[in-house]
Amino acid sequence: MATIEDVAREAGVSVATVSRVINQKGPVSPKSVEKVHVAIAKLNYQPNVWGRRLRRQESRMILIFVPNISNPFYASIVSGIEDTMKKDGYGTMLCITNGDKSREEDFIKLLYDGQADGAVILCIDKNDRNIGKLAKEFPIVQCCEYCVGEDISHVSVDNFAAARQVVQYLTSLGHERIGFVGSVNQFISSEDRQKGFEQGLKEAGLSVDQACFAYADADYSFNSGILAGKELLSREERPTAIFCISDVLALGVIRAAHNLGLEVTRDLSVVGFDDVEYATMLSPMLTTISQPRYSLGKTSAQMLIRQIESGEQGGGVYLEHKLILRESTARH
Fold first, then answer.
1. Please, are residues 213 and 226 in contact by the beta-carbon 8 Å criterion?
2. Bridge partner residues of 80 (DSSP)
């Protein structure tokens, strides 16, 4: 069965142009319209009925897929999406998946039933090929996480560069044995942060020692951060600094250090990632990578609105991160 991409290639135009022709919405030259119609006839392409129905009726509702609501990281992103959508006359529905594929499928049915015009997804696995099929049917934007190898709109920060920067900072303080707390999930951010961490070690002339790696739960829970911190800090040659791929995990590591009688920053430096509100609520305040969370949500919403209105899709946007220096790091 021919796809909209096949029609675009045959006609020598963009997918967005084909979408405009099919939906009779947006500027397209007469020559391009003719090319698209010829390609559709040649390939016997059948435009998606549900997608056309959505664009005609416009439910003015969009879905926001989040893995959980226990991690404070998602709150500002969701606010950015909701505020932006509201200004454009759209309502939002929060779809909490909890890593359950059946729950995710139930929410996706809302798109096929015409109850939503599109979705922002914050919890896509890096190898999930189902997203490609869904994006051919409906406007989809991936926020923070995205599927590798799929030309689907996404917005995030450069997680590799951010993690590499953390290592550069810690080595500038004299740390040479640096621990890493990652996660067992399938998010591209987790993978890129570990790769950036390892690259930073190599560039500093330090070995990538697996004895300095520990892994928390898929949802970055505080308790799993405590366990990962205890695992690293109980070793005979414990790290003098630890980089965690989320602030919640970093706060768990700080609690583990306290439980073991260690003092941050006298005995240990800790760096997190995200800059959630909790990062400044406890002592010591957390050194971390700040993500522009509200802007991530706002940008993803703007990208989704453009898709709904013009059919424009594909490509990635990377927003700027920032290393925030606070009290949890010190010279070794």
1. no
2. none
